[in-house]
Design goal:
- This protein is an alpha+beta fold and 597 residues long.
- The protein has four domains: 86 residues, Immunoglobulins (Immunoglobulin-like, Sandwich); 87 residues, Sandwich (Immunoglobulin-like); 184 residues, Phosphorylase Kinase, domain 1 (2-Layer Sandwich); 191 residues, Transferase(Phosphotransferase), domain 1, CATH 1.10.510.10.
- Strand 13 and strand 14 form a beta hairpin.
- The radius of gyration is 27 Å and the shape is globular.
Length: 597
Amino acid sequence: MIYDMNGSATGTIAIDVQYLPTKIGDTRYFAEIGHSVVLKLTVDANPLPVIFGEWKLGHVALNKTDSSSTSSATITEVQPEHFGNYNVSVENDVGVVSFIVSLEPPGVPEAPSLQLVAQDYTNLTILIMPGHNGGDEGNVFFTLEYRLYGYEQFNPWQSSTTSVVIVVFDLQSGSVYGFQAYAENRFGKSEISDTYKFNTYETEINLSSTFNKDEVGSHKTYEVIDNEGSANITSKKTTKKDKVESTYTDLMLSDRPEDAYTGLSNERPKLIKEEAASPYEALNPQMIAESVYMKCGETSFEYPRDRLSTRSVLHDGNRHRIVLCKAWHIGGKDGASEVAVKMANGKTKSKEESDIMNESILMRKISNHPNIVKLLGVCTNQGPTYIIMEYLFQGSLDTFLQEVRSSSARDQSVTERELLSFALDIGRGMEHLANLKIVHRFLSSKHVLVDDSLRCKISNFGYTTEVIDDQSFYEKSKVSCPERYMAVESFSMTFTEKSDVWSFGVVLWQITTLGDTPYESLNAYKIERKLKSGHRLQKPGSCGRFAYDQMMLCWQKEPRDRPSFSKLVKKLNTLKNKEKEFMDISSHKESTYAVIK
C-alpha cells in the first residue's frame, strides 16, 4: 500500500519475490520387477517455468516429459538396474538445485514407534506410530506386545490389527510396563521396535493430607521411584501452560525407549493424580491442531520435552552432544519428524550449558534463511537446554565429498553444476550472516550440512559471535581450533567477516578437490608459519583458473584486500552454464596438491 503525505492510501505495490526451486511431495517410489511405474518430480519456484535436467542413474537414462513445474519419467517394465537414486537438476533464473528421486523394490515395513496418549489406574491408551510401509500398497498390520517391567517374557496383547490406537486394560495399578511392537505386510515382518516404559497410576491418595486445603487442585503430585524402588512424593505448582506441556525434565519421558542413551537419568516422574480427562482426549483433532509447535509466524520457540524420543547419538564431543530424535508435531507438521537435538555434554561444566543457551538465542535470529540449518524449537524449562534443529541425513559436506570421490560410491557422483551450487549455497549463507554483522569463526566443510535436495546449509554456531578479538574463542578451542581454515590474523585471535571469507576460500578448495584435507602434512605451528610467510594452498588440477583466482582473493594477507561475501557470490554466479570453469571432474586426480606453494 502507498500512502501520500496526509496518510491517505493512493495505491499498491506488487512485490515479486523470486526463489530457487523447492520440491513438492514425496519422491520415493516403489515398484516390483516387471511392473510399470511413473516417477514424478514437482517443484515450486519463482520464476516459472523451470528447466529439468536428465533422469540418470549410472548408465541408465530415462525418457522424460516436462511441464513448467513437473518432470515425469515412465519405466514400462522395471528391471533391477532401474533401482537406485536418480539425481535430477532443476534450474530457474535464481539458480540450480538437484533433487533425488528414488526407486526401490517394495519390502517389509519399518518398525513402528509408540506413544502413550492416556493413562489411569489400570488402563493405558497407546498410539502406534507407523514407520514407512515398505512400498506395499496393501494393509499393514501391527502387533503390540507387553510385559510387567522386570520380567523377561513379552506377551502379545492381541492378534495383529490395522488399528493404531490400542487400549490395554486390566493392568496392575502403580506398575511400570514395557511395550514393543512390530509391523507386518505381505513381504514379511519389520524389526521389533524399541522397548518403551509406560506406567499406570497409583491408587488415589488423600491430597488433603499433603497440601493445604486452599492449594488442592492447583498442584500436580508426582511419585518419583528412586534406584532402590522407594517412592518419594513431590509436588509442583501448576500453571495453565502445564495442562498442555509436560513438566518432565528428561529428554524422553513417557515414550522414551528403555535403552535410550542420552547421558541423562533414566528415571521418569510418575504422575499420580491429575484432572480427569478422556482416554481419547489426546486424539481429538482440535487438541492436536492446538499442539502443533512452531507454525509459520510464531515467535515462541519453546517445545515440550515429552514430545522428543531418542533414536541414536550422532555426535559425542567434549563440549556438546547431538542426538537424533523423533519429535511429534513440530515445524508446523503433524505426526513425527526426525530432528537433531544439541545439548551440553554431561561430561562438561556449566559453562557449556551457558554456551548452548547462547547458541539457541543466536539461532533464533539467523535461521530464517535457506542456507542456514533451521531452528525448530528449544527446550529451556525444567531442565538442561536443548536446541532442536532440522535433521539433514546426507550429513556433512566433507564426508559427502569423500564418499563421492571413493571408488565404491561412483553411483553417488555429482556434476560440476552441483558442486558450483554447493559453493553458491555456502556463500549465500555466509552473506546472510555478514549482513547481520555476525562472525561464524568456525566455517569448515565439517560444519556445512547437505539436505536431500543437495542443498548446503551452514551449521554449528557454538563459536559464532558479534564480538571481534575474543580471547575466549581460542581458550575454549585449544583442542579443536580450526587452524586449517583460519586466516593469518586469526592466529592472533582476531576474527571478522574477512576472516570468515578466508575460511570460505578453504572450503572452495575442498569442494574442487572432492574433500581433501588442506595442509594435510602440516601441524598447526607449521601452517601458521607458512601462511605468515606468504605461502598458500596450491591450485588443484581439476580446479578452473577463475575459481582459483577467487580463492586467492580470499587468502589475501590484509583483511581489507579480501572481497565481501556479496561480491564472491556475484562472481561465482557468473559461472552458471560455464561450470567447467569452476571445476572439471573428469580431470580430477588423487591429491598431489594438499601442500602449500
